Amino acid sequence: MQTVLTIAGFDPSSGAGVTADLMVFAAHGLFGTACITALTVQSTLGVRATHPVSAEIVAETLECLDADLPPAGIKIGILGNGSNALRICDYIDKLRVKDSGTVGSFQVPVVLDPVLKATSGRELLDPEGVAVVRERLLPAVDWVTPNREELGVLLGEAVVGRDDVPEACRALQRLVARMAKGRGLGVFATGGDLEPPDDFLLTPDEEGVWVLGERVATRSTHGTGCALSSAFLSRLVLGDAPWEAAAAAKEYVAGALRRAVWIGAGRGPMNHLWRLYKVVD
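^ thats the sequence. predicted structure below, dont judge the formating
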């Protein structure tokens, strides 16, 4: 069994964050470990507050886990603040050197889900953190999975509609390539707010393809982007090519939406473990 690491926030309602990531990993036959970057006060009704974990605890947790349970893949979600983002960048840099002996070649895939704002509109990362993501974290990771709004924030300009997505992904890839000294960044742009809800995949070698989707009628949509990112990482760790991993992740999330049991008064959680047991549709 391979170990995968989620570096993200704690959602007490288990719709997103580390608790959801661990379920996604389990559904793919992987063993998950977690480094919590922030404690959130939230339910299906939305996020009330966010409390970042100290950067020292984040760094110590990453060092402790890596010494005993080194990851075969890493998913990064909510960062908490800029200080945490810097410690995570330092950790990835050390992994690259340990993995290859030189910076530049990395066998452990790192997927960044740039969670910058809650669906309710609450900011989840301070301006310092956003700057660290743009300038240091993006050049360090292998894949980024933004929605349209997050893609616009990272790029510095609005991404208005479906037709703007492919060029925006290419522009972000070019921007990061200049900072990362030519190392390619893969972009998996989520399109849950599009109609139809298609995603766009741009591989590090600049091949782009739409991953087609269909709208699932349900109120249990909390954490869809989080689950897609974690499922995508899981498939990469299991050996899928990028486009295969993207299609499989899309299929997994659609299944989790279709088999969700409505709980809570707001946007409920998906059925992350639907592959492990049957629930009446």
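The mean pLDDT is 92.
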